[in-house]
Amino acid sequence: MNAADAAVCVADVERLAGDLLPPDIRDFVAGGGGDESAQAANRACLDRVRLVPRVLTSADGADTAGRLLHGTAAMPVAVAPMAYQRLCHPDGELAMARAAGKAGVPFTAATLSSVPIEEIAAVAGTLWFQLYWLRDRGLVLDLLARAERAGCTALVLTVDVPVPARRPRDMRNGFTLPASVVAANLPEGTGSAAHVPMPHESAVASHTGIMFENTLGWDDLAWLRGHTGLPVVLKGVLDPGDAVRAVEAGVSAVVVSNHGGRQLAGAVPSIVALPGVVEAVAGRCEVLFDSGVRSGTDVLRALAYGAAGVLLGRPLLWGLAMDGEAGAGLVLDLLRAELREAMLLTGCADLSAARTLGTVLL
Predict the structure, then answer these.
(1) Which domains does the chain have, with CATH numbers?
(2) Which residues form the FMN hydroxy acid dehydrogenase domain (predicted)?
(3) Which of 106, 161, 234, 324 to pair with 7, CA 20 to 30 A apart?
(4) Known catalytic membership, residue 195
């Protein structure tokens, strides 16, 4: 029996994938910042959100389809930007993009993708591009132009990595990229630091520190909007005041995210921050959510808390590691089946009804 045949939920996929990956790569995917308490808190706080089902709603089926960032999606989910996917499978981002396209959800290509944006665009459905702000502004402009030529429909600017957090698992492993995995969107040679082993240090973090601009400000966001016609999404917003400034700066959406617990270990859990951001933007831009999503019920929790949709990360890497495109597709299929079931059990015929569900916090 194929390993994927034994998976009936995301937890199964993670377990099976963990058995297949080399320990250092498994730790790179699974690990978090500092003591990893932000990861634990993301999950614990999501579990505290309990939904209040409605009955006798005459709901005929449960339609998971809707609009997401000016486009349509088969469910309110997009693939989050994730670096170096060829660590998990030789097909990397190509397999993930194909799976997303078949599932009818957007795929977000990362600046630190291990496949060039042009090759991803050739196999993708709806495509977004995630930008890390580089010290070389000429490279930023080049990435913007390439994303637009590739047909990307949104630009996702990640703003919560002024510096890469210390990730103890990677430091203990002295984690480096294998020679076969490169930052394919950057000029040849600029990612060499990620391949140089250093005792008790992450070479990937070292490369990030060298390449990324750590003094990004609101003026830079205005500059960015002046150099692209794509709708801009700000990823990594937790403070309601920052969300208001983002709206005033003209962004199309914000992503409430603590980077999946991979940055500040003491950061507020994303689900705790979500209602305050939703209230602050007051419908003036879309609010998306990520960090800790592991099931269709989690998607419904985020919708009930006011999110327009969620970004899904680690579970898809586990699926990719387990069985390439088929494994990533399985994770998306599981999520949609779970979301539809949760909607039926709470009396929600569509996403509009889901966004008006009552919740109780344990």
Answers:
(1) 3-355 (3.20.20.70)
(2) 2-362
(3) 106
(4) no
